[in-house]
Sequence to fold (294 residues):
Amino acid sequence: METGSIPLSDVPGGLDVRTTLESGQTFLWRREDGRAYESTTAETASPWYYTVTDGEVIRTRQHAGELRWEATTDADGLLAERLRLDDDLPAIFESMPDDPLLVEAREAHAGLRIVDDPFFPCLISFICSAQMRVERIHSMQTALARTFGESIRFDGETYHAFPTPERLAAATETELRELGLGYRAPYVQRSAELAAADELSAAEVRDLDYEDAREALQTFVGVGDKVADCVLLFSLGFLEAVPLDTWIQTAIEDHYPDCDRGSYAETSRAIREAFGGEHAGYAQTYVFHHLRTR
Fold:
């Protein structure tokens, strides 16, 4: 086992690991105590969280001004990448308007950062997200990993990686439905087939302009504009993306009615501008979490 810590004083704008990992943007981290999404009550120290990424197991928690970790490898770099610790939150906030909702959300959830999840697991997570509460999406991804993912032993425990595209492509629709995926099962199976065949890679999407990238991701089955925006924001580094989910639609109705332009594309352009443009996805993530939990 390797261990280490990252001083949060070195992280521009800090980090709230619990808020970040339980804000509905990632479904690839688990709480050791199994109580993810049960409560948002503040604690002096965060619970332990774990994930399997790039074939490595990482456990981490926030305590005494540090992000402490235990892992199968030196995890400083992986944590910095997955939790976007180099993002300069104060500078990002400077690029956002000082409207009341955004200010309220930023002050309520200081240290919330956007994640950088691996592409295929993020894609499958959000294909499964349609008409689902975040708790249920999280449990689906846990079931997929435990059933089809590679098992890895670490510190006397068994952990499961997210399934490869090839493994999910080989799963039957019946097997996927038995894990609670319902009508999403064939979408997951077919999208896994496309990913296994290298129909569209993360690198190819990153090379596109934002709106072209959103359209390209709809090559995958079960991916519309909103799911594509989620993958662009939480996996591919398009920080301008604003997924128009139920909570953001509510925010538009109650706080930004002039942004409702009648179509996803036009409303998306308008709310991105209202949220500050280049880093509008950060505004979206704060507003989404704030409205969902207040």
